[in-house]
Write a sequence for this structure.
């Protein structure tokens, strides 16, 4: 029953267990979520918080027998919901990053196209005198002085 209850968490995490005997026949069962092998992202602090139950062995077995209605089942469902929300948030952030990159690329392409179609401004061309000066002689070069 323990493994069946933990299956929803195994989809997102690798799990470690700690089982400690306490006074008066109590047992503390601690389930420790860890980053699953091959996971792209690290775990958030809320995801790494261990799930711990202290009770007698009979009480823990009874809670496990209740499945998703038991205390452990409810904790696991809450943790799975948290993992799903974090995954959705990461996906939304990735989608926004991709959309922003595409928008920047489109803006750069539009800007480049606009730059190509504009005519560059050049200084006005100077008009040279077509007629030679009055005192010019055909056998001598013209001077600027």
């Amino acid at each position: 029953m323990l493994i069946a209850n933990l299956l929803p968490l195994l989809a997102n995490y690798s799990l470690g267990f700690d089982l400690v005997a306490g006074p008066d026949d109590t047992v503390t069962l601690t389930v420790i979520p860890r980053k699953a092998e091959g996971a792209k992202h690290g775990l958030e602090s809320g995801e790494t918080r261990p799930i711990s139950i202290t009770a007698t062995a009979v009480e823990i077995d009874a809670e496990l027998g209740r499945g998703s209605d038991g205390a452990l089942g409810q904790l696991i469902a809450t943790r799975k919901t948290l993992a799903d929300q974090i995954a959705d948030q990461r996906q939304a952030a990735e989608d926004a990053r991709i959309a922003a990159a595409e928008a920047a690329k489109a803006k750069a392409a539009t800007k480049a196209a606009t730059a190509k179609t504009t005519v560059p401004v050049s200084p006005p061309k100077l008009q040279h005198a077509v007629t030679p000066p009055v005192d010019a002689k055909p056998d001598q070069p013209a001077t600027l002085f």
